[in-house]
Amino acid sequence: xxxEDWFRTDRLPHIYCAGCGNGTIINCTLSAVDQMGxxxxxxxxxxxxxxxxxxxxxxxxxxxxxxxxRALAFATGVKLANPVLNVVVFxxxxxxxxxxxxxxxxACRRNIDLTVVCMNNQIxxxxxxxxxxxxxxxxxxTTTPYGCAEPAFDLCELAIAxxxxxxxxxxxxxxxxxxxxxKAGLETxxxxxxxxxxxxxxxxxxxxxxxxxxxxxxxxKTHALLRAKRDRMIEQGEKVPDDFFVIGELMRRKRPAxxxxx
Amino acid sequence: MKLAIDETRxxxxxxxxxxxxxxxxxEGKRPNRRGIVVPELDxxxxxxxxxxxxxYGRRLCGxxxxxxxxxxIHWIEExxxxxxxxxxxx
Amino acid sequence: MxxxxxxxxNTACAEGALAAGCRFFGGYPITPSTEVxxxxxxxxxxxxxxFVQMEDEIASMAAIIGASWTGARAMTATSGPGFSLMMxxxxxxxxxxxxxxxxxxxRGGPSTGQPTMAAQGDMLQCRFGSHGDxxxxxxxxASVQEMYELTARAFDLADRYRVPVFxxxxxxVGHMRERITVPDKVGQTPRRELDRGVLPFQPxxxxxxxxxxxxxxYGVHVTGLTHDERGYPCATNPGVHAALVxxxxxxxxxxxxxxxxxxxxxxxxxxxxxxxxxxxxxVQQVLHDRPDGMIGFLRLRTVWPFxxxxxxxxxxxxVFFIPELNMGQIAREIERHVKVPVVSLxxxxxxxxxxxxxxxxxxxxR
Lengths: 262, 90, 366
Known about the structure:
CATH architecture of the largest domain in chain C: 3-Layer(aba) Sandwich
CATH class of the largest domain in chain C: Alpha Beta
Number of helices of chain C: 12
Shape of chain C: globular
Oligomer: heterotrimer
CATH superfamily of the largest domain in chain C: Thiamin diphosphate (ThDP)-binding fold, Pyr/PP domains
């Protein structure tokens, strides 16, 4: 089996724009799920609203495409009512960090046995490019036409502070690493949070001087800082530039978890 | 094994050109019937996975397939399988 | 064998749910419904069930919908402010045809209002609160016994029609303690599974599709978007949307008679009371004080879908009196169905109508 077998091939091609990284992240997630050897019957994909949340519709298993921001609350119900099911949540930055922020921190706190893959494109893509809680300082969007004047959320730090058992961040360029991180998340009992930084050529790149898809991918690639390197820089007293973000496995621990299959 | 791009799925984002370590993909020249410029394959026999997947019994590299946001890149079996002599550029 | 108990309405509600096979409760504390959650928190873990206190009512509603898709009978309990928060996901449950039970122990509103006082101000909200057109079922208990029985029935109705079912009680009934006869066993009609080879949202003759439980290999895609019979999003096709919404409404409205539950007392009377919930008790007192058969009484246990045919039973009716703990929400519904005058008797503030108040209304319209 390959990850291709997990797609509802009758629904492809999907609705994502050309160059959208969401498809890449779905590939990596499904590839990890496939390597787990899970049965399709025992796997459920849950999502909220947004570009990222259209993903379960293209996956052949039971899938729940819910209301905006509430994916984790729905997934909590699914997982607690039937812990035999493997529940994977697809979500986006707006879905998870803005409208679903409360559900996010509480799912982390409960440490419920879910794997959450957040496709962070730093923008509200589906509604046409409005600023999101993760839009970087100074970036342009339709609702931050003079540059985003709010500090952005660091979702991984938030997940760690709230108590998630596994936290990692990779990008849509680091596909192999992302695949491994998702697999590690799936294997970890308790709440696993994998943030995947991704490009949105239509609504983010277009307004922020990335003329080609590859330009934004290149930017993401060059501004990703491995955790070890970041730690080394701090040790040596170097300043970590503001526009860099940390990638790698950021947390792995064994806090007591809820809803783990017995 | 050989590489194939599914023209019904490809949206022409050219990400495969960026990620392939062997530079097998190159920009297409003209739009297809759906108006999409699908990348072309430049000597696809250089692909490590094409040559060595059977030998190793597992997927090698595969970055293009994982990266392709539109699930358009696959390896298909060549029947019958014929070993080919390949000049590898370093 | 039955047994006698002396229970609070909220306890009876929780016990009724447990007897009906409810094994998932997601809730958030809110006066005056909290006792339901507290009782469930004690009982469910011992019965192989799941109690989870969610972070808010939005999440509670979401969790029970998620649990319901795994095949569990799931419920939540709340009151006005929490009920308002649940509205979006109630619409989601209606759109995705998810069976679930929502208990609303109504309190005075709007906003925080009167947390410890009774009202019936959410009767229209439960029918029309979420956006878009849909139909739901709402039951109104007037005694502790009915808290038990109607909660149990709510689960059967939810599974039968695949719809959110509301138990619209009020603070008086929820916090009242009285004698209750508890049956040994409550009959349960299980949810009808989807037949193999049938599309997951393809309805039967009764317009209700079979249920594709998660984890059974149906590979169903559940979405709040307008979907076709395969469950796939189809949001820009006017025909699909119209047919779907029409079916969501018709599956309930067509079953109005089967769902209806009411008592008719003195059908030949000229003056008729219509009541549901706590005001039933005042009307019962008036009838008890005047046993001459001159006062008709339509006692509703189902309010939505409104059993309009029950009004036609009062052939000699010259006037209908509707005592409610709101500004006449159901009185307006009754006006749509009868040609004679409808007198709304609103009572706000949390107190019940007193019998003299109702008698005064009778005298005024004699």
